[in-house]
C-alpha cells in the first residue's frame, strides 16, 4: 500500500508520538514544558570579561529557543497524544462494528486503511505488539510488524474485493521474512487465495487468512478479550471462597484425632445448637 509522505520534521514528531499510548504523549508534553520553561526563565550570565561574551550569546540563543520550545514541544506532544487516542477509539469502534455484524460483505465495504487497522487490532487482542508501517516509499509489501515472546512476524494485508491473492504475493512475503529475520508471516485478505498460493504456504511458517477466516478470528479474539475480566472475577471469587471453605472444614477430634462431624444438641441448656462431635461416637465422646 502507498504511504502518505511527510512534509516537515514537526509532522515526524507528531507521528512518532502518535505511535505511543496517548497518556505517554501527555506526560511528555508536561515534562517538555517544565524543562524548557526552566531554561527559558533562567538568568543570563553577565559578561565580565572578553571570553564571556561568547557564553552570553550562546545563552541568549538557548534561552530564545527554550522560550519558543516550551510551547511548541507540548503542542506537538499533545497533538500526537490526541491522534493516538483517536486511533485507539477508531480501532475499537471498527472492531465492534465488524464483530457484531454477520453480513458476509462486511470486510468489502471498508477502505484499505481501515482494513489494516482492523487486522492490527485483531492481532493486538491476541497478545501481539503491533507496529504499523507509516514510512513513505517502498515497504516490501509489509503493512504490520508483530512481536510476541521476543519473536518477529510480518503481515501483508490485501484489501481486494474482486480478485484472489496469488502465489507471487505469498512468495514475496516469504522472501522478505527471510531477509528481515522474521520467524513467521501472515497474508490477510478480504477475498480468497488461489490454490497455488495455498500450496506454497503449506508446510511453511506462513499463514493465509481469507475473508471468512479473518471474520471468525476477529470474533474469537474479541470474545476472548471480553472474557478476561470475567475470568478475573471468577478467580477472585474462588480466592475469596477458599478461606470460607477452610473455616467450615471438619476439624480433628482433640481426643482420638478422627474427623469430626456437625451435630445438633437435643437436650440440655444447649438444645438446638450445633456443635462438632467425634465421628467415632459413642466410642469417643470428643467435642469442639
TrEMBL record:
Residues 235-251 have a biased composition (Low complexity). One of its GO terms (biological process) is DNA restriction-modification system. InterPro entries: Restrct_endonuc-II-like, Restrct_endonuc_IV_Mrr, Topo_IA_Znf, tRNA_endonuc-like_dom_sf, Type_IV_Methyl-Rstrct_Enzyme. Gene3D superfamilies: 3.40.1350.10, Bacterial Topoisomerase I, domain 1. Residues 107-218 form the Restriction endonuclease type IV Mrr domain. It comes from the Bacteria. The chain crosses the membrane at residues 12-36, 68-86. One of its GO terms (molecular function) is DNA topoisomerase activity. GO terms for cellular component: chromosome. The keyword Hydrolase applies. Residues 252-286 form the DNA topoisomerase type IA zn finger domain. Keywords: Endonuclease, Hydrolase, Membrane, Nuclease, Transmembrane, Transmembrane helix. Residues 220-253 are annotated as: Disordered. PANTHER family: MRR RESTRICTION SYSTEM PROTEIN, TYPE IV METHYL-DIRECTED RESTRICTION ENZYME ECOKMRR. This is Restriction endonuclease. It comes from Variovorax beijingensis. The lineage of its organism: Bacteria, Pseudomonadati, Pseudomonadota, Betaproteobacteria, Burkholderiales.
Amino acid at each position: 500500500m502507498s504511504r502518505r509522505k511527510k512534509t516537515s520534521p514537526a509532522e515526524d514528531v507528531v507521528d512518532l508520538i502518535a505511535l505511543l499510548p496517548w497518556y505517554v504523549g501527555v506526560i511528555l508534553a508536561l515534562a517538555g514544558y517544565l524543562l524548557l520553561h526552566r531554561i527559558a526563565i533562567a538568568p543570563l550570565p553577565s559578561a565580565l570579561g572578553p571570553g564571556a561574551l561568547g557564553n552570553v550569546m550562546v545563552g541568549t540563543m538557548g534561552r530564545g529557543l527554550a522560550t519558543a520550545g516550551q510551547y511548541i514541544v507540548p503542542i506537538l506532544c499533545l497533538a500526537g497524544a490526541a491522534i493516538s487516542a483517536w486511533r485507539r477509539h477508531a480501532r475499537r469502534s471498527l472492531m465492534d462494528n465488524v464483530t457484531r455484524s454477520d453480513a458476509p460483505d462486511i470486510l468489502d465495504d471498508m477502505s484499505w486503511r481501515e482494513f489494516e487497522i482492523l487486522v492490527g487490532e485483531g492481532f493486538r487482542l491476541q497478545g501481539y505488539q503491533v507496529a504499523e508501517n507509516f514510512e513513505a516509499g517502498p515497504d516490501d509489501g509489509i503493512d504490520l510488524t508483530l512481536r510476541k515472546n521476543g519473536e518477529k512476524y510480518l503481515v501483508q494485508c490485501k484489501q481486494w474485493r474482486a480478485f484472489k491473492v496469488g502465489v507471487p504475493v505469498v512468495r514475496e512475503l516469504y522472501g522478505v521474512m527471510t531477509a528481515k529475520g522474521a520467524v513467521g508471516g501472515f497474508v490477510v485478505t478480504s477475498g480468497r487465495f488461489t490454490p497455488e498460493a495455498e500450496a506454497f504456504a503449506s508446510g511453511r511458517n506462513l499463514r493465509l487468512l481469507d475473508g471468512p477466516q479473518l471474520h471468525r478470528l476477529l470474533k474469537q479474539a474479541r470474545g476472548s478479550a471480553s472474557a478476561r475480566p470475567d475470568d478475573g472475577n471468577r478467580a477472585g471469587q474462588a480466592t475469596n471462597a477458599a478461606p470460607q471453605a477452610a473455616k467450615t472444614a471438619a476439624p480433628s477430634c482433640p481426643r482420638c484425632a478422627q474427623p469430626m462431624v456437625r451435630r445438633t444438641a437435643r437436650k440440655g441448656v444447649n438444645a438446638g445448637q450445633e456443635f462438632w462431635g467425634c465421628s467415632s461416637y459413642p466410642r469417643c465422646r470428643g467435642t469442639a
